[in-house]
């Protein structure tokens, strides 16, 4: 199993002090920053675009930027976010007319490519593109809003995906996004995840370091 990665979602950060919050959470021990990009079309919310990604880089953020596109279509935004400094770009298969082409476009720009699967999206969409993905992101809530509760049935889906990844013998991260917090992160890891996106559980706490340290302790204890 790869080392565990914790990626705080900036959707729950203080937008008025985004650079400060981003710096603080990295200094508190986060591995990367997760950007939930929503278009009020594919999902019922509107967040931020490539300019925010670019602004974080100009502010001095050196950590990986993990961009999750909850948008339709995706190809133009893939190019724009890659140019703005994204490190990873993940999108939903339902939002692309040609999934393999979009994954290849992400990699063409030098970014890690990911597919995000909604709770009701099956694993079948991975069958012919496992050689093109670096990350598979399992949504443990329905996308669109932060602060939702983890859907317990998703644990079985994570276990199934863990088997697929292991059988593929490919270097693929298994990420989970939605309702991740200190009291369930170990359970999610035991199901097979190795990358964890957490928003309100971190940013709505006064001590980022304490939360992230507690999450790592829970992961270590299993």
| Strand composition percent | 15-25%
- Note the gap between the termini: 13 Å
Mean pLDDT value: 96
- By DSSP, the count of extended strands is 8
Please tell me how large the radius of gyration is.
Answer: 16 Å
Helix % is 25-40%
Shape: globular
Q: Assign the CATH architecture.
A: Alpha-Beta Barrel
Total helical segments: 8
Question: How many structurally independent domains?
Answer: 1
CATH-defined topology:
TIM Barrel
Strand order of the largest sheet: 1-8-7-6-5-4-3-2
Instruction: Detail the poorly predicted runs.
Output: none
Helix/strand class? alpha/beta
CATH homologous superfamily title: Aldolase class I
Descriptive account of the structure:
This protein has 222 residues and is α/β, with parallel strands linked by helices. The chain has one domain (5-221): TIM Barrel (Alpha-Beta Barrel). The chain is built from eight helices and eight strands; from the N terminus they run βαβαβαβαββαβαβαα. An eight-stranded parallel beta sheet has the order 1-8-7-6-5-4-3-2. Helix 2 packs parallel to helix 3. The model has no long low-confidence stretch (mean pLDDT 96).
């Amino acid at each position: 199993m790869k080392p565990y990665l914790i990626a705080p979602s900036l959707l729950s950060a203080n937008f008025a002090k985004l650079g400060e919050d981003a710096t603080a959470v990295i200094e508190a021990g986060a591995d990367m920053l997760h950007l939930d990009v929503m278009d009020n079309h594919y999902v019922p919310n509107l967040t931020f675009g490539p300019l925010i990604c670019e602004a974080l880089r100009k502010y001095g953020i050196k950590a990986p930027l993990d961009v999750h596109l909850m948008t339709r279509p995706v190809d133009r935004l893939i190019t724009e976010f890659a140019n703005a400094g994204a490190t990873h770009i993940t999108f939903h298969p339902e939002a692309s007319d040609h999934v393999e082409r979009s994954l290849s476009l992400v990699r063409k720009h030098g970014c890690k490519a990911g597919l995000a699967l909604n709770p009701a999206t099956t694993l079948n969409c991975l069958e012919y593109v496992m050689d093109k993905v670096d990350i598979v992101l399992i949504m443990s809530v329905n996308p669109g809003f932060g602060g939702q509760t983890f859907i317990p049935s998703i644990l079985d889906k994570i276990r199934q995906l863990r088997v697929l990844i292991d059988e593929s013998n490919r270097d693929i991260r298994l990420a989970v996004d939605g309702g991740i917090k200190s009291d369930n992160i170990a359970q999610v890891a035991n199901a097979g995840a190795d990358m964890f996106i957490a928003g309100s559980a971190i940013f709505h706490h006064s001590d980022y370091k304490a939360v992230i340290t507690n999450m790592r302790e829970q992961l270590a204890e299993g």
